[in-house]
Task: structure prediction
Amino acid sequence: MTIKNIITEPDKILRKISSPVQEVGDAERKIMDDMVETMYSANGIGLAAIQIGIPKRIIVIDLKIENKKNPLFFVNPVIKNKDNLKSTYEEGCLSVPNQFAEIDRPKKCDVEYLDYNGEKKILKAEGLLATCIQHEMDHLEGILFIDYLSKLKKSMIIKKLSKSKSTRIVV
Ligand code: GNR
Ligand code: NI
Result:
């Protein structure tokens, strides 16, 4: 397994729409293994393949309840049912480092997907898991949580991140 570099804003790659996976084979499992390792090393609770530069519809999530590792793998996820009730979480994103904002999303959702072994599954999610699934699925459409903020807040964040990117290169 390899820890990959996480792409951060501003970067056009993050705006790509990811393509469906044709078959869950060893190559796809290798991507999933690298994704979990990358997510753990960055202390995230979720990661979409596009965040490591791979435009495929693959996401991994681990809420690390009680510090136990329990990685969930979702290939070609589709949301089937969304709750009309919303819940609010303070969201962050490994591709938008050190920035946080409260975002409203449906409190519950059902998600249909293929698992690590390519088997079709359906999961009823709520709370932080539902929020995280929706956050990751947004990545598959090139959407980031900052897109839900006002134009002003969003542009301030992008400005900050592009500045910190340009000063990170030390010769
Ligand atoms: O690590 C993460 N934490 C988080 C917190 C609230 C809502 C969503 C997330 S996902 C984020 C990791 C990430 O960027 N996934 O794409
Ligand atoms: Ni994210």
Q: What stands out?
A: The first helix runs from residue 26 to 41. The chain has a mean pLDDT of 96. Residues 12-167 form a domain with the Peptide Deformylase fold (CATH 3.90.45.10).
